[in-house]
Amino acid sequence: MLRLAMASLAGTAIEFYDFFVYGTAAALVLGPLFFPTFSPLAGTLAAFATFAVGFVARPLGSVLFGHIGDRRGRRPVLVMSLLLTGASTVAVGCLPTYGSIGMAAPLLLVGLRFVQGLGLGGEWGGAVLLTAEHAPADRRGLWSSFPQMGPPLGFLLANGVMLLLSATLSDAQFAAWGWRIPFWAAGVLALAGLWLRSSLTESPQFLELDEHARMPLAEVVRDHWRLVLLTAGALAIGYAIFYAVTTWSLAYATERLGVSRTVMLTCIMAAVVVKGSLTPVAALLGDRYGRRPLCLIGCTAAALWMFPMVALLATGAPLLMFLGFLGAMLAFITMFAVIAAYLPELYEPRVRCTGAAVGYNLGGVVGGALTPIVATALAEQGGRVPWGVGAYLTGIALLSLACFALLPDTRPAPVPAAQPVSG
Fold first, then answer.
1. Cα-based distances in Å from 281 to 98, 145, 239
2. Within 13 Å, how many C-alpha atoms sit on residue 221's CB side?
3. Angle at 78 between CA 76 and CA 80, to 5 degrees
4. Nearest Cα to 190, choosing from 66, 73, 18, 21?
5. By the 8 A CB rule, do 243 and 375 touch?
6. What span, in angstroms and rounded, lies between the C-alpha atoms of 374 and 380?
7. By the 8 A CB rule, do 74 and 65 touch?
8. Which of 187, 299, 346, 387 lies deepest, with the highest CB count within 10 Å?
9. What is the pLDDT of residues 230-284, one digit of tens each?
10. Interatomic CA distance for residues 383 and 79, integer angstroms
11. CATH number of 2-199+214-406
C-alpha cells in the first residue's frame, strides 16, 4: 500500500504542478505577453479566462478517461493522462508571444490549456481509485489521502520555482524568458512520473467485476445524475477557496496593493505547507468519524471565514495575509482530505471512475474556473477591502453546505469482534 500510495502521490503532484504553474503565470505575466492590446485589468481577466478553459476541459477529460478506466482499467488512465498533461505544459513554455505571431499566440495558448485540462480530468479519478480500491476499508480514508497530498506538493513545486526565478531575475528577464522555465521542467517531471507508475498493478475491485459497463457515462447520467450534481455543488467551495487564495489574491495583492511577488508567493506557500501536512490527520478523522461530518464542518468554517480572510488580505501585511490564507486552507482541507475516499464510495465499482471523476471536475468548473474572474471583477468595483469577494465566496460555501447535507455518509461499518465458539 505504501509503494502504491507514494506512486499515486508523486504522479498527482506532477500533474498538478503542470496545472498550477499555469495559474501562477496567468496571475503574474501571461496577460501582458499574450494580451498586450488590453488594459491591465482586461489583460488579467483575459489571462484568467484562459486559466478557466482548463477547468471547462476537466469534466470532458473525466468523461473520456472515465470511460477508459471503467472499460479497460484504472492503470492505463494514469499513463495516458500524465503524457497528455506533460506534453501540453512543455508546449506552453515554447509558445511565441503576441509580439511574435499576433493573435495566433493567445489562440494556441487557449488550445494548449484545454489539452492540459483534459489530461488532469483523467488523472484524479485514476490515481484516487487505484489507491482507494486497493486500501483496506478501515483505513481507506488515510491511504486515499496520499493522492490528495499531490495537489499541494505540485503547487509548492510550481510556486517554489516561480519564487526562485522572481528572486533571482529582473522583471525584464522574467518576462522575456524566465517564465518559460517552469513549463519546460514539466517534461522532466512527466518522465519521472511515468517511471514511477510503470510498476503499478491494476485495481483488485476492477479485476473482480463480472461485467464492465459498456457506456459508463450513459449509466451515470441515467442512474446517478442527482449524485453527480450534488457532489459538484458540494466540492465547489473547495475549489473556490483554493484558487481565491493561490491565484486571485496573488494578482490582487501585486497589482492593487503593491505587495511584491516574492512576499505573496511566500505567504501563500506557507499556508499550503500547513494544509498539506494536515491532510493525513483529517483523513484519519474521516476514517473514525465519517466523511460527511468533516465535510459539513469544513463548509461551515469556510462560510464563517471568508469575510475575515479578505479583510486580512486587504491589509497587505505579510503575517496577517498568511493568517487569512491559513484559516481558509484549514477549512478547505477538512473537506478535501476525505473526498478521495468519499466520492468513490458513493458509486458502484462498474461506473465509479466516470461518476466520481465527473462530479469532482464539475465542482472545479463551478468553483475554480469562475472564481479568479469573478473575484477580479468584484474587487475592481469595491474599495480597499474587497467585501464583494467575501460575499461571493460565502455564498458558494453555503451552496456547498446544502449539497453536503443532502449527501449520505459512507463510513465503513466496523468489523465485528470474533465471537467465542460455544462447545
1. 47, 9, 20
2. 5
3. 70
4. 18
5. no
6. 10
7. no
8. 299
9. 999 999 999 999 989 988 998 899 888 999 888 998 999 999 999 989 999 999 9
10. 48
11. 1.20.1250.20
